[in-house]
Design a protein that fits this description.
single chain; alpha/beta; Glutaredoxin; 170 residues; 5-stranded mixed sheet; 6 helices
Length: 170
């Protein structure tokens, strides 16, 4: 009987730990995107301001995240490769991991868009408003005027492609 109580307590602890911080809410669509500056795995600096006039997809991920591992090759093939020559920028933003595993992840998944590392998690919190454990993968689409037009946990390819096409034509 004690074993069942311990198991129940552990399950409840994990459940409540994965609920995220509800006091931080993500920005709503059409709000100005929060400024950021991040360095990618090749040492290049990326900031929101440098992408003014372009459509930007931020893909928040972690190398240990199963859905992220499934999503990245799709994002590479169906979003990045399809629209990179039309003014789209994709920036993968890893959450709090070391450089080595992120570089290896890029190589193993044939990712050619830049991958930056959010060492503190502050950029993720500014965009997603919660905890990475329960909210990755998380995708944000920012229009040419730096307004958030889409934010969603998970990968909804058709929705993203339709919006990207519309934003690129504006």
């Amino acid at each position: 009987m004690n074993m069942w109580k311990i198991l129940l307590i552990l399950i409840l602890a994990v459940f409540f730990a994965c609920q995220g911080d509800s006091s931080q809410n993500p920005p709503e669509n059409f709000q100005t995107a929060p400024a950021f500056t991040l360095t990618d795995v090749d040492g290049q600096v990326h900031s929101l301001e440098q992408y003014r006039g372009k459509v930007l997809v931020l893909n928040f991920f972690a190398t240990w995240c199963g859905p992220c591992q499934d999503e990245m090759p799709q994002l590479e093939a169906h979003i990045w490769q399809a629209f990179k020559n039309q003014g789209l920028v994709v920036l993968g933003v890893d959450l709090k991991e070391d450089l080595g595993p992120v570089k290896l992840f890029a190589v193993n998944n044939n990712i050619t868009f830049p991958l930056a590392i959010d060492q503190t998690g502050e950029v993720f919190r500014a965009y997603a408003g919660g905890d990475a454990v329960t909210n990755v993968p998380y995708n944000v689409i920012i229009d040419k005027n730096q307004k958030i037009r889409y934010s969603q946990t998970g990968y909804k390819e058709n929705e993203m492609i339709t919006l990207i096409q519309d934003l690129l034509q504006q």
